[in-house]
Every structure is written in C-alpha cells, then in structure tokens.
Design goal:
The structure is a single chain. The chain has two helices and eleven strands; from the N terminus they run αβββαββββββββ. By secondary structure, it is mainly beta. It has a single domain, classed as Sandwich (protein yfey like fold). The termini are far apart.
C-alpha cells in the first residue's frame, strides 16, 4: 500500500507543484553586496544571465520625470524580486525582494519579525542597520513583520 502511494506521489515530487514556497535551485542571500551573484557593478543587461535557474520578465516603467527597466525575477510563475535599472538603463539602481524564499545573512526574510535593538534605525515603517546601509526593511509598524527588503546602493 505504501509503495502505491509513493509511486503516485513521484510525479509531483519531480515536476513540483508550483507553490510559492517551492525551494530555490540554490540559496540566495540579500546582503550589503547585493543579491547572490548580482552586485551593484553588474551591468543591467546581464541581470538575466547572472542568476541561472530563474525566469526573468523585462518590464518598462516610464513617467514624465524618469524611465526605468525592471527585470521581474520569477520561479514557477511566482515573483521573487524586482531588479530596477537606473535612469540610463545600464546599472542596477535597486533590488526589491518580494518572496520569503530569499533571506538576509541572519536568515530573516519577508514575513519574519525584524528584531529591534540599539543599533536598528527606523523612520516610521522603514528600518536599516548602520553596518548595512544599503539594505532597507519595510515593516508593518505594529507587528514589526518584514513586508519588503530593498537593496539600494547609496
């Protein structure tokens, strides 16, 4: 009986269910340096080839005062991050983490509580640590739950 159950589940194991928490092909960490192999000096046109195992959709955002190119990073149709160009379209301006699968060095990500200590600097719902000024944490101001992590090289 257990063998039949195992054989019926094998296709799901190999194909995957396409759920938002499906494991990444390798661990990705957001840090002061960037997102995994993506760094501030990575040319923007190489974003989609620098991280393998992910799908990238190129989007444009044009407003009267600026235009940006956005690479939407996906896995199984679920959005993991937005990588945004500077106004020239040649450099990375910011990376917005939108999935709980990508964590920081302390294994904190979307949905986790941001520990507040004497070094945490917060203005309303935006926090950062002095030793990591390029990482900004947008939190729920009441529960301190991380809603978004943004990498923006200053």
């Amino acid at each position: 009986m257990n063998c039949r159950l195992l054989f019926s589940l094998l296709p799901l194991i190999f194909i995957g269910c396409g759920v938002p928490n499906e494991p990444l092909p390798y661990p990705l960490t957001i840090s002061e340096e960037g997102l995994g192999a993506l760094h501030a000096d990575t040319p923007f046109n190489q974003v989609n080839t620098t991280l393998s195992g992910f799908e990238f959709e190129k989007l444009s955002q044009i407003s009267p005062d600026k235009s940006e190119i956005i690479f939407q990073m996906k896995r199984s149709k679920h959005i993991l991050a937005h990588i945004v160009s500077d106004s020239s379209g040649k450099k990375i301006a910011s990376i917005h983490i939108l999935s709980p699968l990508i964590k920081n060095k302390e294994e904190l990500g979307i949905g986790d509580l941001l520990p507040l200590n004497e070094t945490t600097l917060c203005t309303e719902n935006l926090c950062h640590y002095p030793e990591e000024p390029s990482l900004l944490y947008r939190i729920d101001s009441k529960s301190r739950t991380i809603r978004e992590i943004t990498y923006q090289k200053l």
